Amino acid sequence: MVRKATANWMGSGKEGTGKVSTQSGVLNNNQYSYHSRFEEGTGTNPEELIAAAHAGCFSMKLSFVLGAAGYTPTSIDTTCAITLDAGAITTSALTVRAVVPGISAEQFLTCANEAKTNCPISKLLNTNILLDAVLA
Length: 136
What we know:
The protein is α+β, with helices and mostly antiparallel strands. 35% of the residues lie in helices and 35% in strands.
């Protein structure tokens, strides 16, 4: 399976603007710029997109891990915070809150750590990955 996205950048790094699109069309010429990346300007940015990818990938992997352990989650809510510092992504911090009937806190933490280690986006990222997992 291959998934694609495209980006177009015009101009200098600070004054230029770009557009990003995805194969599925969920993103279609969405704006990004220096201001949306390093300030609070309108548009998306690569770190926000990585955060969304990591949160989504981790949540799905956790569901698979829980299923393999004999549990069906009612809900899994994950937030991912990507830290960009001195030109490098230094941390991807996952915060997950889940409702999983019948599982102990210890079993849940074991499953969450397995998902953190083995979701494809975690494997892709060459950075410190933090996890705060709470069973609700």
